[in-house]
Design goal:
By secondary structure, the chain is α+β, with helices and mostly antiparallel strands. The protein contains six helices and eight strands.
Length: 214
């Protein structure tokens, strides 16, 4: 039996599509903020965070509370210029208690999946695409654009949570890229090692998107 190249390529394409979850349940296509499984960073701004975390590989330190419920060194350190620090102090949209619970959940779930399946499922996302399934509808979806694989750790109960950049580099959301190319004929620019976030966004702005998409 002989399988021609065209048939083989078709089968590979079909296998790849089956491996990707293209349903609205997938947060890679339909992102929604949840209380314990997502965390939005307020400061520093997007470009500064990219420069310090991705390019300079600094660690992100999350705020914590001492037993007396007083902010620790974080409150003083976060007022310094980011460039003067060896780490990045961030602020989030959550109160301290909620923040700690969310971080604990993110760490535990990602660590369990890594141990059971050998997969890193924790990402820091930069930029979103607001897309619509049809021109006639007003219902839109948000999909993360650039995904940076990360690791979340905490040495002890008295230590802050620390987010570090993993050994893998940033990638364009593969599920989004496949869906847009396969269903809408939109080719997202690739993210190469020489790119930075601002340059990539400039390339993306040159891509013609359907009406209403942002």
């Amino acid at each position: 039996m002989v399988i021609t190249l065209n048939i083989l390529e078709s089968k590979i394409e079909n296998w790849c599509q089956k491996l990707l979850d293209l349903s609205k349940r997938n947060k890679a296509l339909n992102f929604k903020e949840t209380k314990r499984s997502t965390l939005k960073l307020q400061t520093p701004d997007c470009m500064t965070l990219w420069n310090e975390f991705v390019e300079h590989e600094k660690k992100i330190i999350f705020p914590q509370v001492e037993e007396q419920d007083q902010p620790v060194e974080y409150e003083r350190a976060k007022k310094l210029k980011v460039s003067d620090q060896k780490v990045i102090y961030v602020t989030t949209t959550k109160k301290i208690d909620d923040l700690q619970k969310t971080l604990r959940n993110l760490r535990n779930k990602s660590r369990t999946i890594m141990q059971d399946q050998g997969l890193n499922v924790l990402y820091l996302s930069f930029g979103f695409i607001k897309w619509y399934e049809h021109e006639e509808t007003e219902n839109f979806f948000l999909a993360p654009l650039i995904l940076v694989p990360v690791t979340l750790s905490c040495e002890s109960l008295s230590s802050p949570y620390v987010l570090t950049n993993s050994d893998e580099g940033p990638v364009v959301n593969p599920t989004l890229s496949y869906k847009l190319g396969n269903e809408y004929g939109i080719k997202l620019p690739e993210f190469d090692d020489d790119s930075n976030l601002e340059a990539y966004f400039d390339k993306l702005n040159q891509v013609k998107l359907p009406k209403q998409w942002e």
